[in-house]
Amino acid sequence: MQYDEKRLTRIVATDCGSTTTKAILIEWVDGEFRQTIRGEAPTTVEAPLNDVTKGVINSTQELEELARIKYNNPNIKFMENGEFVIPRRGDVGVDAYVSTSSAGGGLQMMVTGVVASMTGESAERAALGAGAIVMDLIASNDKRMNHEKIERIRQLRPDMILMAGGEDGGTVKHVVEMAELVAGADPKPRLGSSYKLPVIYAGNKDAVSEIKNTLETKVDLIIADNIRPKLETENLGPARDKIHDLFMEHVMKQAPGYNKLMEWTKGPDLEAVPIMPTPAAVGNIIQAIAKDETIEVVGVDIGGATTDVFSVFTEEFVFNRTVSANLGMSYSISNVLASAKLENILRWVPFDIDEGALRNMIKNKMIRPTTIPALLEELVLEQAIAKEALRLAFKQHKEFASSLKGMQKQRDISEAFSQSASGGSIVNLMTLALLVGSGGVLSHAPRRHQSVMMMIDAFLPEGVTRLAVDSIFMMPHLGVLSEISVKAATEVFRKDCLVYLGTCVAPVGKGKAGKLALSAKIELPDGTVFNEDINYGEMRLIPCAAGTKAKATLKAHGGLILDKDKNRELEIDLHGGVVGIVLDTRGRQPFTLPVEASLRVPQLKKWMRELKAYPEDILS
Amino acid sequence: MGQAYSAGLTVTDSIVLRKERLLPLKGQVLVKKGDIVKADQVVAETLLPGKVVPFNLANKLGVTPAQLTQFIKIEPGQQITKDTILAQNKGLFGTGFMKNEVRSPCDGEVENISSVTGQILLREPRIPVQVKAFIDGIVTEVIPGEGVVIENKSAYIQGIFGIGDETVGNIMMLADNPFDVLSAGKVTEACRDKIIVAGSFIHLSEIELAIKHGVCAIITGGIDDQDIKKLLGYDIGVAITGHEKIGCTIVVTEGFGKIDMAQKTFDLLKQFNGKKTSIHGRTQIRAGVIRPEIIIPLEFQADELIVPEVKVPILEPGSLIRIIRQPNFGKIAKVVSLPEELTMVESETMVRILEAEFEDGTKFRIPRANVEVIDS
Question: pLDDT at position A504, please?
Fold first, then answer.
């Protein structure tokens, strides 16, 4: 059901994250939907409070207080007797309350397939697209012995299992064998022992009766359409829908306070609006942007525990999401160090630091995840770690977002077999138009210039790419809001959610330090002209205000190229932003940094100074 | 306004503690409501399902899954011993010549035989699992088939991080001050089965000595990240711990590096020097936060066991706080004021801050997120 401004004049949306519950107020003001106020409070899903609604109430109370101040009206309130008043009655109440949730660890799933790179990968894609963290993919050909698979299934306590395998009409043996292993393991759900573990079977339809015989008495078996009815066809929708239904019916109901929260989320006609897993909501809005503007988009959300990467590529708007479950800036920060290695973090640090002190600092952030860097040096270190977490998460995403298409897309059979082996990633940085960052380290960086620097260094965008951040991590709220009003969600998205940082121009190829790499003539809206021949290994920042465009004439030298058609000369409009236009001639494919600190540190300082990333005293 | 600070870890000389002691699967509860139990007493037990041994019987016998029924000698649910004949063919032309048979590789039970895949699942004998009381106390609730709730009155300290599982021993103060680094030669055979208390730091060499001398647990203010890595043989990526088997439980009260143990924590441990204590290092910092616990049972009467309503400590002028990030990590101060407006700190981050003063009267500003309130 969709509503317009006549029915929606004031909406509260919350995102119950693992540490913080973030509330925003969206209002119909002066003929448009705007996000007007935000509030936050610690999430209360855990002891001692054990009730997620307490955090929702606290964050909403903050909204109320700020609304009273903003409108100088002491009568404004959204809740009465600890519950939302819906619909709005003048100063009291709201027209809708919607929410997303990733508290309590979000949705945790295990998936199975017959061939890991085919049905296994499809099952993983379905689960990830539905907003889950995939704890493990178990496949007939994954090289583990059967008894090891059983042990693994038993150890993991997922919220649900998605089983895929076999094309319709094909052999049933392998998928039934997998069901036998699941039955043998007798898996238990993560939350509570009072219900059976939900298992969605979305494999060969000819095996359904055997699957029922094997599993029905042990688990709560749900049958969905085959995810891969044919080898060359992927059909993720039905399985994804079942995952969302089960998330509400089983997982949410087990988490403390969610029964109450599920009754609260309502639209103007008091109909229930399902709570959505946070990543699924972000996926919704990212896809909406890509389709709306006909562009390729990458979105990243770097959180405390995980880093989610979303992308929409190709003319068919193929959506992919990956979760790097143990790459994050607080709970998982120590794992970034373990995965990236110290030397890769230190390569972004423009000063000397004792390695032991850095390791202990990282571990202390892990055990006290809500602290923030008060010292400049600690901020620089956290941002260096963020670059590596983002780099690794994006690497995983590129590997996963392979050439298999999403919904019901016919493919050539030879392509289907080569999907993973060939590593045919559909992520093409040359055609990427917009890179959106979110998560505390990007959205709340003290200087937006730092967000630009982190995104460029981590993602290494190629050619011409627009950069933006989600101002206050509003994408989940807007994703779930689109369920009752696409109009409100997209309007707020354009006007209040994204902060456009600017545009990065990065010629691709290898050059030589000191040799000419790029001639750039940029006519700015105020009439000034930037005109410079830039050598390889440099960065330039040209201020160009948000909402304006500059006319650029670009010429790459020395074998460098500027776009997917390998053009060396381009005339193009470049979007401005709160930071501006960045010309980056440090090279791509490869991008390299000097190994020797004595050579690297002066370069880092030069680039950071040029980008105005940090105060001068830490760079001198 | 929403809270932007940590509630802090609990450190108290008296608390009514309520511990659920539950079996991983349904089983038998061995005590009843009102029973007085000791920490090492078994309160519930069960039998965990044995390991599943899967293999393809049809393949081993050299027949198709559909043919398997003709040769099978067992049925689901049947108890078997090692070498029980599971299936046997009739040999060449049914003569018994070149007869092939498959025997069970283990004792146990036949779980499943599949005529679709030819796979058989055998389940090894059940594994007994016992749950101990872990704390001295009184059984106040029996959850039938699942476990019990034990309550007591204790002195209680939450650690920030730990490794190693539940253990029980007597406290032995080895440090004289919360800022002591445990010096060489202090860990001796006299520490066997004890819970030793260091001050601000313990070196790897002393931890290794403690393990050698059978120390059951170490409590320290700080520890070095690399020492933990050397002890475990791997780096801890995500703080989910407690399952480590290094021969000794370690509870860190403050953090990584050399950090003075909080005076209150140190004084409390000193007050109970020699007392029986239950301790574990289990830590989970993601969803479902678990922190290490140090539990020192006190004498109590049953009517004292009234759990007060949970109160979240309030951050207000006059509150005692502990700083939990650099600069001044670990120091105690008193809140002077709580400015409402966002304020820029050295890193240029705009945050909610508070103004506080150290004992010597020095005033300073700090992000609220970087302090924890000390429950006084």
Answer: 98
Among chain B residues, the shortest Cα distance to A59 is held by B2
pLDDT digits (tens, 9 = 90+) for B7-46: 578 889 999 999 999 987 788 999 999 999 999 999 999 9
What is the per-residue DSSP string for B218-271?
EEEEEE-HHHHHHHHSS---S-EES---SSSEEEEEEEESS-PPPHHHHHHHHH
Closest CA to B315 of B289, B337, B343: B337
* Interface contact B53-A147, CB threshold 8 A: yes
* Interface probe with A: pick from B110, B230, B286, most Cβ of A within 10 Å: B286
* Same structural domain, B243 and B333: no
Q: Which residue of B has its CA nearest to A107?
A: B287
B325/A48 CB distance under 8 A: no
> The domain A10-103 is classified under which CATH number: 3.40.50, 1.10.3470, 2.30.29, 3.30.420?
3.30.420
Q: Which of A150, A180, A326 sits opposite B237 (nearest CB)?
A: A326
Torsion sign over Cα A99, A100, A101, A107: positive
Could you tell me if B363 lies within 8 Å of chain A, comparing CB atoms? no
Cβ–Cβ under 8 Å, residues A172 and A204: yes
Homologous superfamily of domain range A107-254: Response regulator (3.40.50.2300)
* Residue carrying the six token digits 């039998």: B47
d(CA A127, CA A111): 8
Model ipTM? 0.86
Q: What is the DSSP letter of B48?
A: E
What is the separation of C-alpha B65 from the centre of its chain, rounded to a whole number of angstroms?
A: 46
Residue owning tokens 């000369």: A569
Tell me which residue has tokens 């698979």: A149
Task: Please name which of A149, A147, A187, A141 lies closest in space to residue B54, comparing C-alpha atoms.
Answer: A147
B240 and B284 Cβ atoms separated by less than 8 Å: yes
Cβ neighbours of A129 (radius 10 Å): 21
How many other CB atoms sit within 10 Å of the CB of residue A208?
16
In chain A, which segments carry CATH 3.30.420? 10-103
Q: Does B106 touch chain A (CB under 8 A)?
A: no
What is the CATH number for B260?
3.50.30
Pairing of strands A580-584, A498-506: parallel
Report how far residue A42's alpha carbon sits from residue A59's, in angstroms, rounded to the nearest whole number. Answer: 8
> Scanning the structure block, which residue is given the tokens 């959204």?
A78
CA B342 to chain centre: 39
Which chain B residues contact residue A359 at CB under 8 A? 225-226, 256
Chains A & B: contacts with CB separation below 8 Å: 179
CB-based contact (8 Å) between B113 and chain A?
Answer: no
In the numeric block, which tokens belong to residue A395? 């690497």
Q: Using one digit for the tens of pLDDT, what is the confidence trace for A95-145?
A: 999 999 887 667 889 999 998 888 999 999 899 888 888 889 999 888 888
Residue B50 contacts A where some CB pair is shorter than 8 Å: no
Q: Is the pLDDT of residue B126 over 90?
A: no
What is the tens place of the pLDDT at every residue in A513-549? 889 999 999 999 999 999 999 999 999 999 999 999 9
Domains contained in chain B, number: 3
| Final residue of a structural domain among B274, B291, B308 | B291
How many residues would you count in chain A? 620
What residue of A is the nearest CA neighbor of B353? A374
Question: Facing residues of A529 across strands?
Answer: A523
DSSP character at residue A213 = H
Chain B residues near residue A471 by CB distance under 8 angstroms:
none
Tokens of A571: 């005339």
Q: Kindly determine whether residue B226 and residue A356, on different chains, have CB atoms separated by under 8 Å.
A: yes
Supply φ then ψ for residue A491, to 5 degrees. -65, -45
Q: For residue B254, which of B172, B334, B167, B157 has the smallest C-alpha distance?
A: B157
Q: What is the DSSP code (8-state) at residue A614?
A: S
Q: Are A587 and A518 in contact (CB under 8 A)?
A: no
